[in-house]
Amino acid sequence: MTPDLERVSNFLPSKIDNFLWEKRLGISTRGIVDTFPEVTVNYNYMTLSYRDNIRILKAVNLTRDDVFVDIGCGKGRMLCCSALCDVREAIGIEQSPELCAIARSNAARLRGRKAPITIIQSRAQEFDYREGTVFYLYNPFDQSVLGEVLDRLRSSLDEARRPIRIAYARPDHEDTLEACSWLEKTDCWLSGRGTTAVGVSFWKSRLPVPVHSGGMSRTR
Ligand SMILES: C[S@@+](CC[C@H](N)C(=O)[O-])C[C@H]1O[C@@H](n2cnc3c(N)ncnc32)[C@H](O)[C@@H]1O
């Protein structure tokens, strides 16, 4: 990401800034999509501003060895932003076939891409997380699914030993992460301003990884 563009971006109203980013990158990720109209508590597709996404990406200190995984990537805004960084790969997991198709089309059109992008249509609770090192969640699901996803993430550390980091935006179910003794909270802040401000919390795996004791992972 070029520092000049970021400097200008900081002074623009968010809507205009988002519009300009989309034009610049050649992608289209705006709007809200009702992904599960049949359920009462819905976890729709929506995305944070480019400004917030970039701030989050900076906070996780991506390196060339990292594989960034957006769990519930929707139309792929955060995924495309991560692929502007010098990472090994950017992977998006998305349950909705329609949103996967949009994310793939955005990935193909993205200007300035530095890393390969892969979009996988899958339920997050069934995905194999061994490849990933940095995981992003923008409040994609409820506590029960989040628990299942964290269990899979934890198991993936046994299968492929590596330190991982997690950024959780709009962390409505943060207590689910707090219950994981294999995770340590490293930071949290409010992203954005006024009524649109969104909390983001940051986590990393504890080393050495505690022994898995089934269900929610805990140390013995
Ligand atoms: C709030 S949007 C986040 C979009 C994206 N991460 C971003 O920041 O640009 C949450 C996404 O998670 C997806 N999702 C919800 N439950 C899921 C599940 N169990 N497995 C995979 N994707 C899921 C939704 O379809 C939606 O696109």
Q: Could you characterize the architecture of this molecule?
A:
The chain is α/β, with parallel strands linked by helices and 220 residues long. The protein has a single domain, classed as Vaccinia Virus protein VP39 (Rossmann fold, 3-Layer(aba) Sandwich). It has a 7-stranded mixed β-sheet with strand order 3-2-1-4-5-7-6. Helix 5 links the parallel strand 2 and strand 3. The protein is globular, with a radius of gyration of 17 Å. The N and C termini lie far apart (43 Å). The C terminus is likely disordered.
With strands numbered from the N-terminus, the spatial order across the biggest sheet is 3-2-1-4-5-7-6
Classify the secondary structure makeup into a structural class. alpha/beta
Question: Which percent bin holds the helix content?
Answer: 25-40%
Q: What portion of residues belong to β-strands? A: 15-25%
| Secondary-structure element pattern, one letter each | HHHEHEHEEHEHEE
The profile of the biggest β sheet is: 7 strands, mixed
> What shape does the CA trace take?
globular
In CATH's first tier, which class applies? Answer: Alpha Beta
Let me know the average pLDDT.
Answer: 88
What's this, in brief?
The chain has 220 residues and is α/β, with parallel strands linked by helices. The protein has seven helices and seven strands; from the N terminus they run αααβαβαββαβαββ. Residues 213-220 have low confidence and may be disordered.
Key phrases:
220 residues, alpha/beta, disordered C terminus, 7-stranded mixed β-sheet, Rossmann fold, binds S-adenosylmethionine, 7 helices
